[in-house]
Amino acid sequence: MSSLGSETSTEDGGKELIGTVAGPGDDPNEFVVVTPDDQAVKTGEFISYTVPVDGTGREVIARVTNREQARGLPETFMADPNVAPEAVASTLGVPTDDIDLYRLEATVIGFYDTGMQTFSNPRQLPSPGTRLWTAPNEMLEAILPNLGVDEQEATDANGSVDLSRINVEEREGLAHMGWLLNREANAVDVHIPIDEFAATHLAILASTGSGKSYTAGVLMEEMMMPDSRASLLVFDPHGEYSSLSEMRGNGIFASDDYHPEVEYFTPENLRIRISELNVGDVMSILDNPSDRMQERLDSGWRAMQRRESRTWGIDDLLEEMRDQYGDDDSSVGALEWRLRRSIQRNDLFTTDVNVPLDDLVAPGRCTVLQMDTLGRRDQQMIATVLLRRLYQARLAAVRGRGDEEGYDGEIIEQPLFALFEEGHRFAPSTGEAPSLEIMRTVTSEGRKFGFGLGIISQRPSKIDQDVLSQCGTQVTMQIQNPTDQDAIKNSVEAAGEEVLRELPGLTPGQAVVSGDAMNTPVLIQVRERHTTHGAGSIPATSQWKQAHEQRNEQPGRTESADMGGGESTGEEDLL
Ligand SMILES: Nc1ncnc2c1ncn2[C@@H]1O[C@H](COP(=O)(O)OP(=O)(O)OP(=O)(O)O)[C@@H](O)[C@H]1O
Fold this sequence. Notes:
By secondary structure, this protein is an alpha/beta fold. It has 19 helices and 21 strands.
């Protein structure tokens, strides 16, 4: 490795001199850097240079987007793998010092503007000859995520702005997701503001096995820390989050006055009161009701909803429809069969039990709805009814309806965050799902009412595009499928070319974080979980072997398997 001239190449704070600007690049925002250093600068690295802006020297950050060799030893020197190219060079008397030269392309991100609290593009490329440095670790920690660092915090005792002096770890309400992939582990820790993604929603998108639920687990752990004490609700269609209960006894999550609560609900205690369904929900679960049936159901259902009692059932509804249309109406007869089969005989629905929302959600409580024993339609139904009730309860709280005389509806005073594994199941891009409408409502309006959603999915192209495009923060992991990459391109505003280019090459645990929680997209390594990950793949070969050994140990099994001995040949069992 060679140094740039005779100057020392490093400064305090891990800032390293890496090269010199050669000139502008192909795009207006791009420039070219020549660097002799073949180790320090990888694609994706953040580099910096200083330019005068309004009379003040500003440290501008740029991202390296491409790296190629500009000069090196001739390829013929590498023809024999048994002989080092340097040995060939020395035999031929060719000097090898300072021979390697790299050409980097970099895109300007901007300088951090403490007034605007985000990056500002100086709209001026560095002049040829400008010296480039790796951006300092502490500064990157403070300015890559959207932490709203302001001038007061960033100003040192001499009155100069110094972004490296911000101690991110002292700030509250941040989720430590991991660290910048291009730097050493924990050199640049990435802490994202929970308030941002809890308000404007979150999407975690990746192919299966890339680390979506692991990352969701990391974020939930962070949200349940003493300085956040979230009110979380997890819709868990596969029962993947049972290990979150480990947070209860783990000191990392506790403080003098706080221990996180983790509660599990199963379908047995999540029954849906029939009167909570609206007529659209019912239509979606009935088998192809005709127009006449729909008309009768609509009228009957509305009449039932006007009643004071909330504990009516299918018999009461049928009686109402018969009152309206007569005892012999054939459409009511056809509806009876469908209603009894889809609702009355389904244990999920009941006339009177309704889990109080206060039992379900509370500050400092993570509630996991374990729905793995239910079919897709029943899972959607639970999500529909719960989301609708929670949304109404938040709306009532924000609008101060609790103080109104005569208001007897539910109220949830604290903001909520609901996380959906298999998000495409609840907000699908095609086909009917009763939950789609309320998912759209919460993602478009929830911000105003303190109701955030997190959508996890391995098939971004199968998520309703309105819902996906409302997820302001995105954690995107490995995705190779071109249709899913297109869905991300079309719905994720922050997903520029550089983000999309990264996706196929990521390995499990690596992610691009972009959107509202960030000032610019970054590639990170997600940190390890404090709780056990509950969703690993099942190791088939060891489990087959173990199961087979156990089977052999069963006395009856070995005897009947031994066709040569004992009284049974096993043939009797077949007769
Ligand atoms: N940040 C990480 N650190 C360590 N291991 C990780 C990390 N992220 C993922 N893994 C490993 O990768 C495996 C797959 O992760 P995970 O179960 O979260 O994938 P997934 O995308 O949710 O898959 P699926 O779609 O099948 O649910 C896990 O078993 C876990 O061990």
